[in-house]
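Dear support,

I submitted the protein below through the web form. The confirmation email said the job was done, but the results page showed an empty box. After a refresh the structure appeared. I'm attaching both so you can tell me whether what I see now is the final result or a partial one.
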Amino acid sequence: MINTTLIATVLAAVVVGIALGLFGGGGSILMVPMLMYIAGVPGKTAIAMSLLVVAATSAGSLISHARAGRVLWRTGLLFGAAGMAGAYTGGLIGPLLPEALLIGGFAVMMVVTAAAMIKGRRRMTATTHADLPIGKILIEGVIVGIVTGLVGAGGGFLVVPALVLLGGMPMAAAVGTSLLVIAMKSLAGLAGYLHSVTIDWRLAAIMTVAAVIGGLIGGRLAGHINPDRLRRAFGWFVLAMGVFVLAQQIPALM
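What the results page shows now:
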């Protein structure tokens, strides 16, 4: 008998991977609600699994960007190291918080992500500073890492602007470099969660493979299409999902 739930989950994971590879962020914000409402995974477990899938997908998508020369390794590793410290801390704290609070916070993050995607990044330009502002990059990395560890989202919508505005990167390089950062801090967040949360490794492996395939597709498309219109449409979809998830959690928060 065909498992329609598993098929739907796998297809959704491919879409998340494509979005992550194409935009350098944004798609991973759908992984947690997808696991909860399609696969029926509990909230905290969904966050932990999301961190694993996002880490693998980001690493897979990174390949295409690296081959195209769109990754600045020194800055990415520096930002990623700071993000790992924050993400591990968030991963330790997350399981201790009420699930409704975590998922409610995640829904708010979805709305913020959607707003950033709908607004677009056209006005962002690289700074003219020759030297990397290391202090600002480290602080931003830790903050974004904590958010990643707590709610299981990659935080690409925060990483990309930080790399452009603080790191002085061109947009294409910021998108590619953000994937390195997301992979590093997602793994750290997962390590924190695994201290107190058990995940379904079989389902996680299936989802990871599907998302990585999607990420490779997205990475190849990134250099050939203008994603602005697609990003806005995807942003409206994320906004609708965020409102839905928040509405589901409001009764538990009252």
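Response: this is the final, complete result; the empty box was a page-load delay. The chain is about 75% helix and 0% strand.
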